[in-house]
Amino acid sequence: DAGVIQSPRHEVTEMGQEVTLRCKLISGHNSLFWYRQTMMRGLELLIYFNNNVPIDDSGMPEDRFSAKMPNASFSTLKIQPSEPRDSAVYFCASRPRSGGPNEQFFGPGTRLTVL
Amino acid sequence: GENVEQHPSTLSVQEGDSAVIKCTYSDSASNYFPWYKQELGKRPQLIIDIRSNVGEKKDQRIAVTLNKTAKHFSLHITETQPEDSAVYFCAASNRANAGKSTFGDGTTLTVKP
């Protein structure tokens, strides 16, 4: 099992550019969580999906942020246009189907720098 | 919604001493309480968890206690070692809520050799 896969691992872009972060869930997991981590704000939940359906997006900071889950194993988080204050490490995490452990398995993260 | 508070924000101990990190939660419906360890530059990883039907759980040098009445839970690390140095996060979740976890702000633990 490869675990949760995120790409890219590092992204450096200029303000105003579109950024797309990608996440592949662990096979058999059906819940997907996107987090943002900064020194100032800690670990923030942005949005989560269950069975491909967005359940709670109240953590998405602005309309510039959007997330999709086009199929059961893949999700994207898009920032358009990006701003320097979006610089952070973005983690996705997946969770097994209900009835199993509640543990969330984190991906390695994408370190985003917006210049 | 759920609110999780974690204390202290930083903790420094001498190698071999014990470390205790405490968290409180607000939603009485929360029934699963994981603890994650995040080493510098790495992802958070689960180290121990406890469900609401259990008061204490132990795994070698780490243990977690839960007081449902008071809505607080604690992480205990005994015989600390330098490799225990990391940021520790507590979280609270409700299995009925698709496993959404609310995280504490983290505790930076430094174990001095």
Structural summary, described in words:
The complex is a heterodimer of chains A (115) and B (113). Chain A has strands spanning 5-7, 10-13, 19-24, 29-38, 42-50, 53-56, 65-71, 74-79, 88-96, 105-106, 110-114. With 115 residues, chain A is mainly β. In chain A, strands 2, 4, 5, 6, 9, 10 and 11 form a 7-stranded mixed sheet that branches. Helix content of chain B is 0%, strand content 56%. Chain B has no helices and 11 strands. In chain B, strand 4 (32-38) and strand 5 (45-51) form a beta hairpin. The interface between A and B is medium-sized, with 19 and 20 residues.
Brief summary of the model shown:
The complex is a heterodimer of chains A (115) and B (113). Chain A has strands at residues 5-7, 10-13, 19-24, 29-38, 42-50, 53-56, 65-71, 74-79, 88-96, 105-106, 110-114. Chain A has 115 residues and is mostly beta strands.
